[in-house]
Recover the amino acids of this structure.
């Protein structure tokens, strides 16, 4: 009887963990690495949510028209570990985003790096940039 209860509990645990994993998407399922984008715009909203934080930016296109972009960041725990707290970027701040566009062509991007425009401060980079790397001998 005890082993049956343990088996049922393990089965329920696997089902629950499987549904949580499916809610988290892979980069390649939504974004296209061959569609690099560069945005400079004013933050209009942030969402401090799991599994990913989001920042919404009004950026001008090539013709000067303002477009709203939803920019996906990493999870909030990763951002906090790197010093980006909930209030680090405020509505009205201008940021520069390097990233990758959505496969479906909508104004959705995945950020590879985010900098504050007024100071050039790097807030987030998915891969260490040369200026961040230290050489060890």
């Amino acid at each position: 009887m005890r082993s049956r209860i343990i088996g049922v509990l393990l089965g329920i645990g696997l089902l629950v963990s499987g549904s949580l994993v499916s809610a988290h998407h892979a980069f390649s399922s939504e974004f296209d690495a061959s569609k690099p984008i560069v945005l400079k715009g004013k933050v209009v909203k942030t969402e401090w949510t799991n599994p990913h934080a989001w920042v919404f930016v009004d950026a001008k296109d090539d013709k000067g028209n303002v477009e709203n972009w939803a920019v996906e960041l990493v999870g909030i725990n990763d951002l906090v570990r790197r010093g980006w707290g909930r209030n680090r970027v405020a509505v009205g701040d201008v940021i520069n985003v390097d990233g990758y566009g959505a496969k479906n062509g909508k104004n959705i991007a995945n950020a590879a790096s985010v900098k504050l425009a007024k100071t050039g401060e790097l807030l987030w980079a998915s891969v260490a940039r040369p200026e961040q790397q230290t050489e060890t001998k």
The two ends are 61 Å apart (CA to CA). The helical segments are 2-23, 27-30, 76-81. The chain has three helices and six strands.
